[in-house]
Amino acid sequence: MIPALLKWIGNKQRFAELIVSYMPTEFNNYYEPFLGSGAVMAELLYSDENKMYPHFSHAYGSDVLPFLIGIFDIVKNEPAVLIDYYKSEIEQYMQDRNAKYFEIRDRFNENHNALDFCLLSRTCYSGIIRFRKSDGYMSTPIGPHKPISPDTFMKRVNLWHQLLEKASFATMDFEKAMSQATAGDVIYCDPPYTHSQRIIYGAQNFKIEQLWDTIRDCKQRGVKIMLSLNGTRESRKKNISVEIPDDLFKRKIIIDCGTSMIDRLQNTGKIMTNENVDDLLMLTW
Ligand SMILES: C[S@@+](CC[C@H](N)C(=O)[O-])C[C@H]1O[C@@H](n2cnc3c(N)ncnc32)[C@H](O)[C@@H]1O
Q1: Could you tell me what percentage of the chain is helix, strand and coil, using 3-state DSSP and rounding each to the nearest 5?
Q2: What is the pLDDT of residues 11-39, one digit of tens each?
Q3: Rounded to whole angstroms, what are the CA distances from 183 to 21, 178, 198?
Q4: Mutate to test the pocket of ligand 1, among 17, 18, 31, 34 (most ligand atoms within 8 A of CB)
Q5: How many angstroms separate the alpha carbon of residue 206 from the centre of ligand 1?
Q6: How far, in Å, is the centroid of ligand 1 from the Cα of 96?
Q7: Among 33, 98, 194, 217, which residue has the fewest nearby CB atoms (within 10 Å)?
Q8: For ligand 1, is residue 174 a contact (CB within 6 Å)?
């Protein structure tokens, strides 16, 4: 498992190896249009670096959040900038956590810079990146945890820097990103969770119907698509997934995710039973 660069709710770190194992053994380029913390791409690049399957040419990661893509660009091109920034800011944070958190959050909300966004993901409550609907203000409160040390962070940035050698990044909507894939490419989609993630990640405008159409177009061009979807919960009784069109996918893999993180947060203080969640991994081939 590749250590996470960002603390990001709903990340696929725990399942990344499994997801990569379902990719074809050889393909041209890899596209990940809902990049988030990049857990799946990192795992794929790690297997590539270690001469394991799959073999592919280049990885293209994209997301609608420019300051998130900015972090990947910095890790790829000037890792020392991020390492130094984290060190000096986190050292101050440890002196007066609340004051420093609000300083970072205010600064980020003023200029949307990638360096502060990275700090927020490491220090905010449970990695829940939440934007206020009315004005887009990043409003997540401070987390109670101790952020990883500058030394640990430096090791992670250096590892990711190495992994990102054959990857490039761009800020764009999934439709545009997916339109760039051609025959022989693979796309992995992990869209915002349809049942509970509307308030986070700035995903308010996401429409799953648009994704079905885009997947259909890509499939017709000879692109292979993998899609993660939230599936069932409450002892697998209640289906919280969306209606999946019949014509798009050939295989459905059920991934046991354990208790849902969002449920755990929303039910703080309550006793929870049977709140198991399964994710679906859908393949078009
Ligand atoms: C469930 S998260 C992806 C998590 C990722 N697999 C990981 O391991 O961290 C969904 C991502 O989709 C992005 N997103 C939401 N709407 C989008 C859109 N219309 N186009 C592209 N990305 C979008 C969000 O910013 C968020 O980073």
Answers
A1: 40, 20, 40
A2: 999 999 999 999 999 999 999 999 999 99
A3: 21, 12, 32
A4: 34
A5: 9
A6: 32
A7: 98
A8: yes
Q: Where in the chain is the domain with CATH 3.40.50.150?
A: 13-75+157-283
Tokens, residue 15 = 């399942």
Count the residues in the chain. Answer: 285
- Among protein residues, the one whose CA lies closest to atom 25 of ligand 1: 201
DSSP run (H or E) holding 169: strand 167-171
Residue 225 carries which DSSP code? E
**pTM of the predicted structure, to 2 decimals:** 0.92
- Indicate if ligand 1 lies below 6 Å from the C-beta of 65: yes
Please tell me the class of the 13-75+157-283 domain: alpha beta
Question: Is 230 near ligand 1, meaning CB less than 6 Å away?
Answer: no
> 77-153 belongs to which homologous superfamily?
Adenine-specific Methyltransferase, Domain 2 (1.10.1020.10)
Give tens-digit pLDDT for 108-144. Answer: 999 999 999 999 999 999 999 999 888 889 999 999 9
Question: Ligand 1: distance of its center to the CA of 170 in Å?
Answer: 13
pLDDT, tens only, 139-167: 999 999 999 999 999 999 999 999 999 99
C-alpha to C-alpha distance for 261 and 114, rounded to whole angstroms: 25
- pLDDT per residue as tens digits for the range 92-102: 999 999 999 99
AA identity, residue 88: S
Average pLDDT, the chain: 90
What is the predicted pLDDT for the residue at 24?
A: 98
The CB of 63 under 6 Å from ligand 1? The reply is: yes
